[in-house]
Amino acid sequence: MKTGFWKSIITATLLVVASLVNAAEPIKIGSFLTVTGPASFLGDPELKTLQMYVEDINAKGGVKGRKIELIHYDTGGKAQDAVSFVKRLIQSDKVDLIVGGTTTGDTMAVIPDVEKEGIPFISMAGAVEIIEPVKPWVFKTPHTDRMAAAKIFEDIRKRGFTKVALISGDGGFDKSGRAQVLKLAPEYGMTLVADESYGNKDTDMTTQLTKIRASGAEVIINFGLGQAPAIVTKNIKQLGIALPVYQSHGVASKTFIDLAGDAAEGVRLPAAALVVAEQLPDTDPQKPVLLAYKNKYEAKHGPVSTFGGHAYDGLMIAVAAIERAGGVDRAKVRDEIERTKGFIGTAGVFNMSPQDHMGLNAAAFKLVEVQKGAWKIIE
Question: What does CATH list as the number for 145-278+367-377?
Fold first, then answer.
């Protein structure tokens, strides 16, 4: 009887110890980002944001008493490396979920492994194909390229133009954006009079733009990211092409303005409200969230960009889902991400569902224009 009694005590003690050890284990969040390479101005602020807020969460006691361990790798924008790193994150690092994927190319490349392994994945890339059709384990925080194309066409139509020249890069985001422009143009009464492309590592696009100048276009849309859109913008000015220019949300950072210089004046694009946070009315529920993130980031790292904001949104959505799930059970966390409602982030107010793994509507986009070297809300 005594033996049985002591066995029960020992068993109970071991269970308590095991529970305490498990509770003390860190929550492992994996990330793969384009911190170097042509798209580094996207991935660099994303990494800095994740590091800054993980440190902040841990300093406040973690998530239900558990610290977060951030494990990240730099893909340099190479989809093949993204696949290798995600395999490592899942199989070797044993992460609980993934918040990463700076570019559409990197993101799309890893989706098969994410789906096969059944691990929650929140991407920071823009293409609509990431979440349409819906994939059980895949979510995203930025607005889609389809939303961007629609926002651009709405403004072009208001200005009375119908003849559009399109120029785009060769990356995954660029190609997906081009497809959305081609798809939506007829719906807005637009005629594409030119459809040119360039390599994202090209340093001169005057040949393509010379063709556009001869096309009879009334407006130019450039869908791309990285340094190439700034080169396109400078080449347009150098060639003396006096047409309205639209860029995509893939360049919504001060870096684009710095790279393009005076050529950026007058350029319009759809962007998250983060780049114009101070211009929002005080009644906007996003304003305090945006200013808090902006002030925190800029105090440590300099000018804010929408891309770092996408990382903030992804991390906070993930942390809230873990809290609601009561732990890191993958299926439960996945379900809670999908149940995200009313989350006020930098990109907008997120309301996800089984049919929508992004949760943003067109109202989350602001149309902005470069005026005197800064972003200005024009709608």
Answer: 3.40.50.2300
CA quadruple 38, 41, 42, 47: dihedral, nearest 10: 120
pLDDT of residue 18: 46
Report, as ranges of residue numbers, the positions in the chain whose pLDDT lies below 70: 1-23, 379
CA angle 64, 68, 69 (to 5 degrees): 155
Looking at residue 111, its pLDDT comes to 98
From the list 151, 200, 210, 150, the residue with the least C-alpha distance to 180 is 150
Beta carbons of 260 and 230 less than 8 angstroms apart? yes
The tokens of 224 are what?
């791309």
Peptide bond before residue 112 is cis, with ω within 30 degrees of 0: no
Domain with residues 10-144+287-364, CATH architecture: 3-Layer(aba) Sandwich (3.40)
Question: What pTM was computed for the model?
Answer: 0.88
User: Which helix (H) or strand (E) is 168 found in, with range?
Assistant: strand 163-168
For residues 246 and 227, what is the distance between their CA atoms, to the nearest angstrom?
Answer: 15
Query: Whole-angstrom Cα distance, residue 50 to residue 53?
Result: 5
